[in-house]
Write a structure and sequence with these properties.
By secondary structure, the chain is of the alpha/beta class. The protein is 25% helix and 20% strand. A hairpin with a 2-residue loop joins β2 and β3 (55-56).
């Protein structure tokens, strides 16, 4: 199985380039965050605004980005009227992306290129995945610090996983170990594990974006995140798992109130939109609903994590 969470329709050309000119001199770079959030979603309908612990999914990353204090602007790029409205209520600016960048086959890179053509006033672009609700403001701060210290052109986020990888030859059916010697099976404490891309966010300088039209290129820095951030949101089960993790690990801005109980069905609760006030669930048709697991669910979550069942997630 592949370990990368995203395939890129681009081939970075200068992965060992000199230090980025963004960090030359005393000028503070202008950093802009963009969150792609199209209206269509094959696996989970209306996923980007589906309710997760009382909040639309995109609100989790919008608030984390805003409270990090490193961004000059936070944008949501969408083709959808309802997402547009909710993103503004959450405090983000909104870019109406071109329809051809919001199809089921369009790449995230096409949405980035569409965005920067319309909004060229930036030095560093940060692609934030709406499907990574466990990002915290500190992650953005540490990620930017890692890129700045490395004087890098781009940055990728990863998690460290102690997983033994295998591949199977399609013709012979013979399996082979990819990242360890079965005859010398290492103990966890004696092995650094593998750094696996978790697709939470990426920093890219304007120079790299204009030259390569890719989120990664030139000198690449890395920010290592906690293993719980390596989770997908592609099924109701995924949603239940992440909903419980969000209660513990998600970012709750000052003054926000965590929902009581686990019932988030329409008519039984309110959607907390932290950038505005509140929107009744019954009035927010199409927002979807989150599902809590309670104590038993948390136990199941921990068991799943221990068994290595948390998988990658699809691009926005």
């Amino acid at each position: 199985a592949a370990v990368a969470r995203h395939s890129f329709p681009c081939s970075p050309k200068t992965m060992a380039a000199p230090a980025s000119p963004v960090f030359d001199g005393d000028v503070v770079p202008r950093i802009v965050a963009v969150i792609p959030a199209r209206g269509g979603s094959v696996s989970v309908p209306r996923k980007n605004i589906k309710i997760l612990q009382g909040r639309p999914l995109i609100d989790w990353v919008i608030q984390a980005a805003e409270y990090s204090g490193i961004f000059d602007e936070v944008w949501v790029s969408t083709d959808d009227d309802e997402i547009h409205m909710i993103a503004k209520k959450c405090g983000a600016k909104v870019h109406r992306r071109s329809p051809h960048t919001a199809t089921n086959t369009a790449s995230t890179e096409s949405a980035l290129v569409d965005f920067v053509k319309a909004h060229p006033n930036y030095d560093v672009l940060c692609l934030v995945q709406a499907t990574s609700p466990l990002i915290t403001p500190l992650d953005f701060q540490k990620g930017w610090d890692a890129m700045r210290r490395a004087k890098a052109d781009s940055l990728v986020t990863c998690v460290r996983a102690h997983r033994f990888l295998w591949s199977v030859d399609k013709r012979s059916g013979v399996a082979r170990a990819v990242n360890y010697d079965p005859a010398k099976r290492p103990r966890r404490q004696d092995w650094d594990g593998e750094l696996i891309e978790n697709g939470a966010f990426y920093f890219t300088t304007k120079e790299v974006m204009e030259r390569e039209e890719c989120r990664l290129g030139g000198r690449v820095a890395l920010h290592e995140m906690e293993e719980h951030t390596f989770a997908e949101l592609d099924s109701p089960t995924d949603w239940q798992i992440v909903a419980n993790m969000a209660m513990i690990h998600g970012f709750w801005p000052p003054g926000s109130v965590k929902p009581e109980g686990t019932d988030e069905s329409p008519g039984s609760a309110e959607v907390t939109i932290l950038g505005d006030s509140k929107l009744g669930l019954a009035a927010a048709a199409g927002l979807g609903m989150g599902v809590g697991l309670g104590v038993a669910g948390v136990a199941a979550l921990l068991a799943a994590a221990a068994a290595g069942l948390l998988r990658s997630k699809a691009a926005a």
